[in-house]
Amino acid sequence: MKKYLLCVLMISTQVFSQTYPEKNLNTKITDVTVFLQGAQVTRKGETRISSGETKIILENLSPFMDDKSVQVKAEGDFTVISVKHKLDYLNEREKSNEIDSLQERIENIESQIALQESRLQVLAEKESLLDKNKDLNGETSGASLTQLKQAIEFYDRELSQIKKEGIITQQLIENLNEQKTKISRQIADINLQEDLPSGKIEIRVESDISTSADFRITYLVENAGWYPNYDLRVKDIESPLTLNYKADVYQNTGVDWENVNLKLSNGNPNESGVAPELETWYLNYARNTIFKSVYDRINPNVANVKGKVLDEDGLPLPGVNVIVKGSTVGTQTDFDGNYELTLPNNAKYLVYSYVGYKIRELPISQNRMDVKLETDQALLEEVVVTAYGGELQGKAKGIQIRGTSSANTARRIETTAIENQTTVEFKVDKPYSIPSTGEKLAVDLTEYEIETHYEYYSVPKLDNSAYILAKITDWDKYNLLEGEANLFFEDAFVGRSVLDAKSLSDTLSISLGKDRNIVIGREKIDEFSKRRTIGSNKIETREFRILARNKKSQPIQLTLFDQIPVPAINEIDVDEVELTNGKLNEKTGEITWTLNLKPEEQKELILKYEVKYPKHEKVLLE
């Protein structure tokens, strides 16, 4: 009778101490679901097993396997008794031929360096010989003026040539040494991975007869993931917004993914699945209470962070993952270890992770954050664990979308969006390959043309610039995640921003930067700004003129913001005198004007207010 069994793992290690016939199972990675952090790998293989008990062995697996996630499904007339996962130090993965190639490049560079250093010695000998003979054989007193002039010109010409060639040669040696350092760093990174043990799974089965067996093994691996980013393009304010939804995928699991069925999921299996619980709220006097919002950024003035990631020896680490904790915003360091990241609101920590190094989590404290990573010696410790993991969910019909693969090719690929109850997956409809190099692979998921309402926004009291806002309604249907966005307006790159997909608003507002064709000015009118005394009170008046001009060829809608002060005590009164049809929020003092400006049209607004307060006091106004 045919059986379909999900393995039940036995914790006891005594079972494995017995001796059973062993059989290697050749498997192939067929499916990979890449999460924001980590990936689920599915392997399939088939073999024949003899009657009795047999130990099925899978070798050369990733050393970064999560042992708690290992699960085995088997189909055939047999029983899976137990499964054990461990790290195999004796059967290291096959060394890469890339090391030999890189070593040859180093040897070639060292030969060039030796040749150039020999040339420097020759130049030094030439200079020494020239210096010894510059006195015209010690008989300068008998030399004619012409001979002396010829000798000086000869000495100047030869010495200048020697010095020039010496500088060029020294610079060439420095360049060669720099190349050698980079290649040595690359070899060290490869050796770091090659020296790691390989993952190994042992499956003990029992059968009454000789039979065929099909196995499906799934597990989670670390050192893989993806993060979203976007290109937002606006041709003009009368055209729809074009949104290119892209994914930067990386994997450094130690095993190449060749022609696998690839999915990208916005789930994160590393997040806790435990529902939060409220603790007792003890109310005390204010003087005994310290309050700090959990949403406050450690340094709210930091909007962008850049820096360099180094190893313990001070050498740059390329391919380090730098992610804003609790978000999908991230990037990787370049070949020189440099990174740059635009931060979303409420960003508090950056997480730095790299294969073979300890993960570092640092508070965002300044615009430049240089980091050193320490080698993780724990990776060299053997782990022998039996484990069972539940089936990860995620199969449902979705909508059809298109995308491209931009990993060194412009070939178009098909993708499908799958909406599950808690996650969204993008499925690449054709087999895809991702090598285990840790390098970022850019995959275009899809492109949307979105009908967008454009508005201009300005706070001339703080900044005379006009910012253009793209407002998207029903944005939830696009399955967007929080991520960095490159902004292009009227065929020009205007900067970077963060697409705040965590917003609870029905309308998603995206700032597209400044528009220089909208001119705004704010000036104080001194002749109407004065102070006078009436009885026991002083009255101060302030008046400002605000000008807004549209130099574009299209009409625009411009929203202007300004303010009047809000009294904090009853002895101070503030009265608005003139607001030019502006709307006043009496609680905040904020004034809003919504202007519709035709091409080349200019409008003038007046803001005037009075402040009354006791004459023996002083207030600070603009």
Automatic annotation (TrEMBL):
Sections of the chain in a coiled coil: 92-193
UniProt entry keywords in alphabetical sequence: Coiled coil, Signal
SUPFAM superfamilies for this protein: Carboxypeptidase regulatory domain-like (SSF49464)
Residue ranges of every copy of the DUF4139 domain listed in the record: 216-615
Protein name listed in UniProt: Mucoidy inhibitor MuiA family protein
Endpoints of the signal sequence: 1-17
The keyword Coiled coil belongs to this UniProt entry's keyword annotation: yes
